[in-house]
Design goal:
Elements (H helix, E strand, L loop, with lengths): L4 H15 L24 E11 L8 E5 L15 E9 L8 E11 L6 E10 L8 E9 L5 E9 L6 E11 L6 E11 L1
Antiparallel strand pairs: 1-3, 1-9, 2-3, 3-4, 4-5, 5-6, 6-7, 7-8, 8-9
Length: 192
């Protein structure tokens, strides 16, 4: 009997699929939207400039190492493989005490064996004004020793739903001893 079971199962499967033809309807969880929810809104281009404070030292660091770098001697200079989790303040001016606009939350990993090159994955979570509660998501390569680095904005939430654009990052200050950095971000984003 067990040697006939696979044949019986295959026959029933073929019979079942032919008994219930495809009706063209999608699964219950999928629903087609007839009206464009963004049709009544116009798309606009916004430009933001703020400062990202990556603090690795002191009693309250905003960036912490969660994965150590590779022990390989060839990549020791680039710290290849290291991953840092961030909750960095975004401020209006480069001074740490200037107005807080939000936080950069996410992580960056040292992804290059040849140079100090990061893969950045972070949300700019805004906490002031009409952007309070809205986010922009950045995902891209950051070659930190280049004067200006460009990374894509791949989305957003709240006011920035359906956002797309780019950021230009340039180092304002870097402390070789502590690793602390202040980076100017110029964000150009299309959103509704």
């Amino acid at each position: 009997m067990t040697k006939y079971f696979p044949c019986l199962l295959l026959t029933l499967l073929m019979l079942f699929t032919q008994t219930f033809p495809v009706t063209g309807e999608g699964p219950a969880f999928l629903k087609s939207v007839k009206r464009n929810p963004m049709k009544t809104r116009t798309e606009k281009l916004s430009h933001f400039r703020f400062y990202w404070h990556d603090i690795l030292s002191g009693p309250n660091p905003t960036a912490v190492k969660i994965v150590p770098p590779s022990a390989n001697n060839k990549t020791a200079a680039t710290a290849f493989g290291q991953v840092n989790m961030i909750d960095d303040p975004l401020t209006e001016k480069p001074e740490a005490g200037s107005k807080l606009l939000g936080r950069a939350q996410g992580f960056y990993g040292l992804a290059s064996q040849e140079e100090v090159g990061l893969i950045m994955a972070m949300n700019f979570a805004f906490s002031t004004g009409k952007y309070n509660g809205s986010t922009l998501t950045v995902l891209g390569r950051n070659a930190v020793f280049e004067k200006v680095r460009e990374m894509p904005v791949i989305g957003g939430s709240g006011v920035f739903r359906f956002a797309r654009g780019y950021v230009k990052a340039s180092t304002h200050s870097f402390d070789n001893k502590t690793g602390n950095a202040v980076v100017e971000y110029n964000v150009h984003v299309l959103h509704f």
